[in-house]
């Protein structure tokens, strides 16, 4: 039922690590003040010492995965890739990136307008063992109203590069940048 030492920060010799009961570990997620490109998130942990991870996913991407189990498998692959890119073991990467305690009023930026997302979190040990169910909170960023706007584009090519200039007819309109 319980995990002994799954999340101990206690380095004192002879002191036993805390015991975490996954059935008792809950994460309460809140998404407030969503704008066109941001959301404010808060997470309340029922056990301050228990490690967890939180992430965002577009609702359509989550639905394409089909289940929380598929989401966890996808996350594991992504976390392993991030660890390898940083030339770290998965355990070292997770130890550096897992969260303990509460998260208060963090603003997440660079979201797409008018898109449904899930903020989700779950208990995770530094060794990569999932200790809870997936907790989810849905939110949607504000849409951008469509407006009449045309664009004048010019291209200039050099031997090793291309420059694209785009000038909107209405410079006061909100423009969304797409990275290629």
Structure description:
The chain has three helices and ten strands. By secondary structure, it is an alpha+beta fold. The chain is globular, with a radius of gyration of 21 Å.
Given as residue ranges, the uncertain stretches (5+ residues, pLDDT < 50) are 1-17
- The coarse overall form would be globular
Percent of residues in beta strands?
25-35%
Secondary structure tally, helices: 3
* Strand tally: 10
- Cα distance spanning the termini: 48 Å
What does the secondary structure layout of this molecule look like, with pairings?
Layout: E1 3-4, E2 19-20, E3 27-32, E4 39-45, E5 52-58, H1 59-65, H2 68-85, H3 90-97, E6 103-108, E7 116-123, E8 135-140, E9 151-157, E10 162-168
Antiparallel strand pairs: 1-2, 3-4, 4-6, 5-7, 7-8, 9-10
How would you sum up this structure in a few lines?
The protein has 180 residues and is an alpha+beta fold. It has three helices and ten strands.
Please name the defining characteristics of this protein.
disordered N terminus, 180 residues, three-stranded antiparallel sheet, globular, alpha+beta
């Amino acid at each position: 039922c319980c995990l002994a030492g799954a999340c101990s920060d206690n380095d004192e010799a002879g002191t036993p690590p805390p015991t975490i009961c996954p059935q008792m570990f809950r994460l309460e997620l809140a998404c407030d003040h969503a704008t066109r490109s941001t959301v404010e998130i808060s997470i309340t942990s029922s056990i301050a010492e228990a490690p967890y991870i939180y992430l965002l996913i577009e609702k359509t991407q989550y639905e394409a995965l089909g289940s929380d189990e598929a989401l966890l498998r996808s996350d594991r692959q992504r976390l392993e890739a991030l660890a390898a890119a940083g030339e770290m073991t998965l355990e070292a990467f997770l130890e550096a990136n897992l969260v303990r305690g509460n998260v208060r009023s963090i603003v997440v930026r660079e979201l797409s307008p008018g898109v449904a997302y899930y903020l989700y979190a779950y208990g995770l040990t530094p060794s990569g063992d999932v200790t809870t169910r997936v907790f989810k909170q849905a939110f949607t960023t504000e849409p951008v109203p469509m407006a009449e706007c045309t664009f004048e584009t010019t291209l200039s090519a050099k031997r090793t590069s291309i420059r694209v200039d785009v000038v909107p007819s209405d410079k006061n309109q909100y423009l969304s940048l797409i990275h290629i």
